[in-house]
Amino acid sequence: MAHDNLMNNYFNPNSVYTEEDFKCRFWIRRHVFERLVHNVQQVNPYFRQKLDRAGCPGFSPHQKVTIALRMMAYAFPTDAMDDTYDMSESTCLDTLAEFYETIVHLYKEEYLREPNQ
Q1: Which of the four, 10, 51, 66, 92, has the lowest number of CB atoms within 10 Å?
Q2: What domain count does the chain have?
Q3: Is residue 40 within 8 Å of 65, Cβ to Cβ?
């Protein structure tokens, strides 16, 4: 249900929030977010949606990337994510750590450089 709400609010056609609302909320444009979701799924299987032991779908890639970006952008505490996105504190921390590692792996060559004098 949290995934459906997220998709209806921000990503589906005729979503509740506009492109400008999205940019204000996530600090990036929607197409950049979508490219980021696509890229992290390609590199790290953690960001692909899987079935849990009961056969129910786990967290979606959109949910995981949203959690990571919101925690970084707003310094949201992990327990606040449980109320909004139904993700436990430990899963939020795991997601954030996986996101950091994946972003460094993906974009290190293009955006990171050695410090100069």
Answers
A1: 51
A2: 1
A3: yes
